[in-house]
Amino acid sequence: MVSFENDYNTGAHPEVLRSLLKTNGEAQTGYGADRWCAAAAEKIRMACQSPEADVEFLVGGTQTNAVVIASLLRDWEGAVAAETGHIAAHEAGAIEYTGHKVLTLPQHEGKLDPGELGAFLAAFHGDDNREHMVWPGLVYVSHPTEFGTLYTKGELSAIRDLCRNYGMRLYLDGARLACGLMCREGELSLPDLVETCDAFTIGGTKCGALCGEAVVFPRHGRPPHFINAVKKRGALLAKGRLLGVQFDALFTDDLYFRIGAHEAEAAEKLKGIFREKGIPLWLDSPTNQQFVELEDRQVEKLKEKIAFSFWEKTDERHTVIRFVTGWSTTAEDLEALRSALDELR
Amino acid sequence: MVSFENDYNTGAHPEVLRSLLKTNGEAQTGYGADRWCAAAAEKIRMACQSPEADVEFLVGGTQTNAVVIASLLRDWEGAVAAETGHIAAHEAGAIEYTGHKVLTLPQHEGKLDPGELGAFLAAFHGDDNREHMVWPGLVYVSHPTEFGTLYTKGELSAIRDLCRNYGMRLYLDGARLACGLMCREGELSLPDLVETCDAFTIGGTKCGALCGEAVVFPRHGRPPHFINAVKKRGALLAKGRLLGVQFDALFTDDLYFRIGAHEAEAAEKLKGIFREKGIPLWLDSPTNQQFVELEDRQVEKLKEKIAFSFWEKTDERHTVIRFVTGWSTTAEDLEALRSALDELR
Amino acid sequence: MVSFENDYNTGAHPEVLRSLLKTNGEAQTGYGADRWCAAAAEKIRMACQSPEADVEFLVGGTQTNAVVIASLLRDWEGAVAAETGHIAAHEAGAIEYTGHKVLTLPQHEGKLDPGELGAFLAAFHGDDNREHMVWPGLVYVSHPTEFGTLYTKGELSAIRDLCRNYGMRLYLDGARLACGLMCREGELSLPDLVETCDAFTIGGTKCGALCGEAVVFPRHGRPPHFINAVKKRGALLAKGRLLGVQFDALFTDDLYFRIGAHEAEAAEKLKGIFREKGIPLWLDSPTNQQFVELEDRQVEKLKEKIAFSFWEKTDERHTVIRFVTGWSTTAEDLEALRSALDELR
Amino acid sequence: MVSFENDYNTGAHPEVLRSLLKTNGEAQTGYGADRWCAAAAEKIRMACQSPEADVEFLVGGTQTNAVVIASLLRDWEGAVAAETGHIAAHEAGAIEYTGHKVLTLPQHEGKLDPGELGAFLAAFHGDDNREHMVWPGLVYVSHPTEFGTLYTKGELSAIRDLCRNYGMRLYLDGARLACGLMCREGELSLPDLVETCDAFTIGGTKCGALCGEAVVFPRHGRPPHFINAVKKRGALLAKGRLLGVQFDALFTDDLYFRIGAHEAEAAEKLKGIFREKGIPLWLDSPTNQQFVELEDRQVEKLKEKIAFSFWEKTDERHTVIRFVTGWSTTAEDLEALRSALDELR
């Protein structure tokens, strides 16, 4: 069945796979000390235009969020996130498991509002009881968000300024960063993230890798003894080369950016098809996650031909569903969707 | 350089790689709900001769130990291990990070002694102060151990009996299980482990996979809501197929057992070479980790030709070094070692 | 200065103090195994009309909430609370420190709305992604709430029914329970709590003890090995008698209820004074916490004569302040407040 | 029955009680911000001859150990202790609950040996695998130890030097410090501890308080946001005055030292009685814990008249039992013991 279920339902991009094959026989030291991790880190530093960036590789997104956030927070601090932020809603309490609270603020199409954040921080620091409360120590943003939306340069700068004023760190979860970087509306580049964030991730899993997230700590900002922190949380991969080889491939010949552009382009075509069929977008997402509202009976029928994700019920008779494009989305997939939508009438 | 550094320094076994290639384009549901995880679990149940076994797949060894042990322990309990047990010594405190103590007993070539374990448990339960102490709730054994040694059937049964008497669980870390199953001295089969343990792992990383450990919970013994427990600890892989496909390959045409046999056979040849050169084994390991003691100057010289691991200094002038055979160890590797040893004289 | 700052700013009620004096010289076993803890537990069982209740004593409120909630939750569960619930807002992340999330719902004068709770639970259990989410395992209510308000019998029953339907536990934080039991509007008795809750606390600190909270687990519901759980979290008091003697005194000759009645009566008089002076109550609290809104300049002036707590700014020129009555509040204190208010005009 | 069971089986010393009575009616701010905590801290600074010392008050010993150690350790570090150290053996895993390992070394009459500690630290830092291990970040010593023994000035200095060399902190658990300071063999004074340690406790519970431990952080060494750390771990007392008033009394007119001297003197008399009766001391403890070995049948008989603690079985027919003197031990108690021992013949 043609699938728009998510961007991690197929295996690795052919160029990533080719690198894995080519290097398979090499004997490499374990735990990330291999030459491929070194090479990939160097290529990422180049792409970020930042020789001072520390780059580390972990296996999965929730794992990465938990390890990095726990390493950046101090004992008395928590992480501020939108109520729909991945760490707040869909990581089974992984941040709380590290002993830190997630402090939530309202979401606006998945994003934090800098004004609301500022008001929250001012109120907290004006509260006499703050010794009885969790201190906001870090802001978590996802970019693109869980709704596919993007922060503007101005918004992220405003959040960064608040963080600096209040002695907080800014962490950006880039699980789907490739598409965020390459879509038409994307204002933020890798060098922008280096300038703005204290840490950010470059997601591999949703961009053609079998697994893997790169973490960038600008300005030599890697927490001390980070490998111990990773190991202690069960996140240190023995064959670290698996991550190094894949990220080396992703940052060779601009593959990471080509995949992002492909995802964005396929998403634009998807939007075109929905528009053409008179199906309203539930949200105007500029990236590879698209949300439309259909009648329940249409959802049932479409399901027979096309795989997608259930998002939420909006009323008794309507449901929002999500379509995601990925590195493996083809023109044929889009055509199959078009035909299936035709049959809904 | 020819490497005996460890059994995870090369990539995937060709048959595993072939399966990854063949299935790469398939769209599969994420998080372990794909058809390959299901198929691999079924094949492992067959190999275990146990239709009632629950089988789960995780990425790495330390991660698996922490998730499984935390899921099997109750709040007031800790895990008993030999002082050299992997969880006690080389996991950066990952068990303690779950909030549980590791209670250590002396090691005997890496193994727990059932008699000492029994005495410890009797003393604990005779102590009036046990409400102020951590209760031994689980016994952790590694098989093969960190020294390559193996439990006999009698030893493991004795430990199992103690566990049952005292209401404890028995967990076996099989990171290098393949070789333990297939070497000449190995008394324990997969069905034996099903009969004896409450949980055990079948290590993939050190047996030809890029990553991955299978966990077997005999008698439908998987802890409730195990996926939540995995996710909460950052250990749930998005492209779960990566684990499913690899374990499906490992349990197709007895590949897992063939690799184990290859490792054991290569280790026997290794021992033969050391014997032939008059180099004494520091320990009589029946599996793919071999330890020899050399003069420091010999170690320095050998290092130029052959990669191995430093183990420990025994005195001012001598060092124990470790050699490990893996799926990718070849006759040529062994020959290269023989020549390098010749030059030590 | 006359103080309405809170209900724990003076020492122990004279009858409690007298018991401490009288028993001071007795040699008693430590850690709660003394005869006074046993006697106090028995008296509480009598007051609860429940011979099957387990009763334990801890030192402080946040500590008790953390220990009890962690003991009642399973690994994959979190605690549901109103966003203003003490565990959500003012315990410095003590629940998250146990590794569990606090799931917040809107507050209505400090209370959870059973209808909203039901909708939340239905939505959660209808979500396909719940393996990636924290399961609601327990409902936390405070009674009186942080705003002094009370649950009705109907409301608490409705919450209890939801808990039973969804396999959850119901925990009631009774830090200020005495006043909640004895005020005019209080519908719920100790036997009602036994019938409704899986655990509840009988606060001592805010009711005339130097420290101490009793925890009642109806129907022999104490979690197994509870003392280990208490000790592990640093909450086991060596001279447990300190808690036993005090609770024994509080449950002798109805002292606990007399203090609650005194607090409620003093609060009614407080309300009368505010009404008389034309100062609007910000909230209609039936218990010993009262909230009024004043102009900032009035607040400044009043502060010179009377101690109270800042609650929140409502606009540029107004502030809500809190007055609390306690066991030691006297007619003179109330009169002093009346005079001070007169001077505000 | 006459009791030598422990030093916390009776209530508060009369002078402590008198202070509690005298201050009972005062309205004081909560959570340690009262004037008595301030006064007590100042008196302790005087006794320590250290105006730069930060002083904090907590309720109990295990709680204090856990809060302080967790605050002094960094994420990748653990605490080194003798295998019989309180945190290693008798705190139900409270340190592990904070996510940190206790690294144990052999005990010598309850003490760490500086030489063995030095060898352990040298070996750790020479190990290539230390990224997979828990870093020793703090040394925990108890003084007096769990066996009543004391560190010499030379021993503690040697440990302190190791800590400084390896970037570690030194923490001394003074649960029974009073007696350690005042007994004949005690070499270490409060100013010595200020000079040597990064943090140490002055135990109140075992020295005439109802509860309470003072923590001293020399050289303004209190960890930042310590109150949040205390609150987060459920250890912040609402009526903090309870601790302030008691420690103020203990450090008025040298009460703390008088109690310590009384305990030591009573212990000397105890030793004299055992010597006189020909009962061998199992261990030569200079402080208020004394250990003797008796035949089991003698233990049974003695138990009818005198309360003491079981320590350990030494063989089939002998048992070590512990006698402890406290602030409330009287000449009559000692006489009663003498008579009871007479009857054992």
Describe, in plain words, how this protein is organized in 3D.
- The structure is a homotetramer of 345-residue chains.
- Chain A is an alpha/beta fold and 345 residues long.
- In chain A, 41% of the residues lie in helices and 18% in strands.
- Chain A contains 14 helices and 12 strands.
- Chain A has helices at residues 14-23, 35-47, 61-72, 86-89, 94-97, 114-125, 153-165, 177-182, 190-196, 226-232, 241-250, 255-276, 296-303, 331-342, and strands at residues 2-3, 54-58, 77-82, 102-105, 135-142, 169-173, 199-203, 213-217, 289-295, 306-307, 309-315, 318-324.
- In chain A, the strands form 3 sheets. Chain A has a 7-stranded mixed beta sheet, with helices on both faces. The first copy, chain A, has a 3-stranded antiparallel beta sheet with strand order 9-12-11. Chain A has a two-stranded parallel sheet with strand order 1-10.
- In chain A, helix 7 (153-165) links the parallel strand 5 and strand 6 (169-173).
- In chain A, helix 1 packs across helix 11 and helix 6 (114-125) packs parallel to helix 7 (153-165).
- The first copy, chain A, is globular, with a radius of gyration of 21 Å.
- The mean pLDDT of chain A is 97.
- The A-D interface holds A 31, 70-71, 74-76, 99, 131-132, 134-135, 223-225, 227-229, 231-232, 236 and D 31, 70-71, 74-76, 99, 131-132, 134-135, 223-225, 227-229, 231-232, 236.
